[in-house]
Design goal:
Homeodomain-like_sf, TetR/AcrR family transcriptional regulator, DNA-binding
Length: 179
Amino acid sequence: MIIQTAIPLITEYGSAVTTAKIARAAGIGEGTIFRVLADKDELLQACIAEALSPEHAVRELDAIDASQPLPDRLAKAAEALRAYMSRMGAIIGSLGHRGGKHPGTVRGAGRNESTTRIRAALAELLEPAKAALRRPPEQIAALFPGLLFTQPRTEDEPDLTPQELVEVFLHGALPGSAE
């Protein structure tokens, strides 16, 4: 509960957020934080580890109904992965740009482990369509997250919706290539 309450506050205030503010928001005494965590640095570490953890994204991917059409499954997967990247970016960006000491190395799932777990969940989501795929589900699962990083990122070109991204991913950029 402390970590879940602290994450949005860290996103807003960076490492300058006080433990008193976190305790008030959680409805607990400040001393309770220090009975659970050694100090503020440990609290920051725990919040970053939670934000970087693939658990939430994997749960969302696992919850997607495999009986839905592949484009619908992948659009939901894109939404889940965008939310995951947004959570990571918000907390890391806040700590990096709002001053204060960055907590350094983070405990928890490392980048390789996170990537492996997310790819495995994506491959499982693709498995029912294996016979129709041109490449193995594992390979497509490795390619799919890169799709989310290919947004135009300009003011005059809006981001594609998850459905639009999936359409380009599955059918290419040429008209009629879906046939």
